[in-house]
Structure formats: structure tokens, C-alpha cells
Amino acid sequence: MLLTLFSFLVATASAQCAYCEFVVQTIEGFIESNSTEKEIVTFLENSCKVLPEPYSDMCAQEVDQWGSTVIEWIIMKEDPQVICTQLHLCTSKVSKRNNCGLCEMLVTYAEDYLGSNNTVNGLEAYLEAACADLPAPYNSDCDALVAAQLPALVQWLLAKEPPELFCTQVGLCSKKRSK
């Protein structure tokens, strides 16, 4: 969305992340002032129109694709850092060690939890408890994964996507893995 567009215009990754967080905080202000989703998306679309080509078209595509989801995450009180990590504009605090298996296990736990007629509201606490049972250093990696990816994980679970696809999408598994 507008955030992705400015990733092209902002020189450093830290500036890109800071700008993303600023935009998320601005949207939080819209929500606090009881603006509708349509008003917020219209604001973002109008912001895209003032940008030069090809950025205005790219921005508009991102607003169409992610606008409603980002608003939903903000309403769920997700931290701007977490949202911007989801949009790949901030780096995740998840360790770069091979956490593909950890990710797939966590997604499977989440699927099982929701498949047992539990609600999304209790999912975070359930996953945090599962992380606490893991040995170091995987317990802290697991906690970071839950903190950084929970909103996206919920969306993927609701879409009934397989664990390996989610974990590849968030960069913790490679596209081609040996079984």
C-alpha cells in the first residue's frame, strides 16, 4: 500500500520502517476519531494519486490489496512494528536460525487449537504457552514469531492454507525443501 510505495522512495531500511510506523500511527488516529474504513482507504488512495508514476499505480494496488487488512490489524490493537513487519517494511525480531520446523509446528498447533472449537481470541495465549514449553533458544524464537506474525497467521488459518505455505510466505521456510 502507501507503505510499500514509500519503501522505494525512502533510502534506508530503518527510515522505511519508521515511515511505515508513522503511517500506521496516522491510521490509528483516524480510527480513534471514528473514521470509517471507507474514509481511511479513500485517504490512502488520494495519497497515492499525488505520487509520480509508476509509484502512484503501485501504491493504489497495495492499498487495494492490503488496506482493509491493515485497518483490521490496527483495530485489533496490533503494534505498528508488528504491522510493518507483516508488510515486510520492518525486520522481524525472529532469529535467522533455521526456524522452518518451528514455524510449521506452531502453525499446526494453531490449526489444532482452532479445530477444537476454540476461538481466535485465546489463540495468542495458547501459542505463548506452547512456546514457553520449548527449550532455549527455540522458546524465545517462538515468542518472537508469535509476536511478529500472529495477525498474518490468523488470516492464513482462516483461509485454510497449509503450514508450509505460510512459513514460506513469512520467510522462515525456503520454497524448495528436501523432505
**N to C succession of SSEs:** HHHHHHHHH
Strand content is: under 5%
When the domains are counted, the total is 2
Name given to the CATH homologous superfamily of the largest domain:
Saposin-like
Overall structural class, as computed from helix and strand content, comes to: mainly alpha
Biggest sheet character: none
Shape summary: elongated
CATH class of the largest domain: Mainly Alpha
Strand count: 0
Proportion in helices: 55-70%
**Residue runs with pLDDT of under 50 for 5 or more positions:** 1-12
In round numbers, the mean pLDDT is 78
Q: Could you tell me how far the N terminus lies from the C terminus, measured between alpha carbons in angstroms?
A: 36 Å
Q: Might you state the CATH topology name of the largest domain? A: NK-Lysin
Rg, alpha carbons: 17 Å
CATH architecture of the largest domain: Orthogonal Bundle
- The number of helical elements comes to 9
Keywords, separated by commas or semicolons:
single chain, 179 residues, mainly alpha, NK-Lysin, 2 domains, disordered N terminus
How is this fold's topology laid out?
Blueprint: H1 2-9, H2 13-32, H3 37-49, H4 55-75, H5 80-86, H6 100-115, H7 123-132, H8 138-158, H9 163-169
